[in-house]
Design goal:
The chain is of the alpha/beta class. It has one domain: Endonuclease, Chain A, CATH 3.30.870.10. The N terminus is likely disordered.
Length: 185
């Protein structure tokens, strides 16, 4: 009888991420088990700024993107994260970013022009701020949390970052990203 795959270590490349056996292999366990297990591994990890290098966690995970990398972020001044987006685009990954319209983001947005990273700007739905902070990687995993993509957030603030490897949850974040992308300019 097949066994469920072990969850991959953080930063494992997509090709090394185990997937569940085909639903047919789970037939002896019934349709419900086959449907649940065919989605692959689900795992989560949490990181905190005082003891973890959140920028390194984020850029390492972004380096695993093989097809798509969609990011929605309020404020963005981190050059290493910017470089991870540019590197992904250079590898042929489709990279899209929705960034709040706040003028402090102008320098990072300008630095992404001509790099292959598609960028749009968006305010909040009622004239407020677009305060999201998430990345969806290959429709399989999500990076999210309080962590702003800034030097201060990584070096001075108490912040958290979640890595969620869950295709269904990544799909929900992907749907929200698509909504933001469609509404952005």
């Amino acid at each position: 009888m097949p066994t469920a795959p072990a969850c991959p270590a953080r930063g494992a490349p997509p090709a090394a991420r185990p997937r569940a056996a085909s639903p047919a292999a789970w037939a002896p366990l019934g349709l419900a088990a086959a449907a649940l297990l065919s989605f692959g591994c689900r795992s989560s990890s949490v990181y905190f700024s005082e003891q973890d290098d959140l920028t390194a966690v984020m850029t390492d995970e972004m380096a695993t993107a093989g097809q798509t990398l969609d990011v929605a972020v309020y404020t963005f001044t981190s050059e290493p994260i910017r470089d991870a987006l540019i590197d992904a685009a250079a590898r042929g990954v489709a990279v899209r970013a929705v960034i709040d319209t706040w003028e402090a983001n102008d320098a990072i947005v300008s630095s992404l022009n001509g790099t292959g990273v598609k960028v749009k700007r968006k305010a909040g739905f009622a004239g407020g701020i677009m305060h999201n902070k998430f990345a969806v990687i290959d429709g399989q995993s999500v990076l999210t949390g309080s962590f702003n993509w800034t030097y201060a957030a990584d070096e001075q603030n108490d912040e958290n970052l979640l890595l969620l490897s869950d295709k269904a949850l990544a799909g929900q974040y992907g749907d929200e990203f698509d909504r933001l992308w469609a509404a952005a300019e």
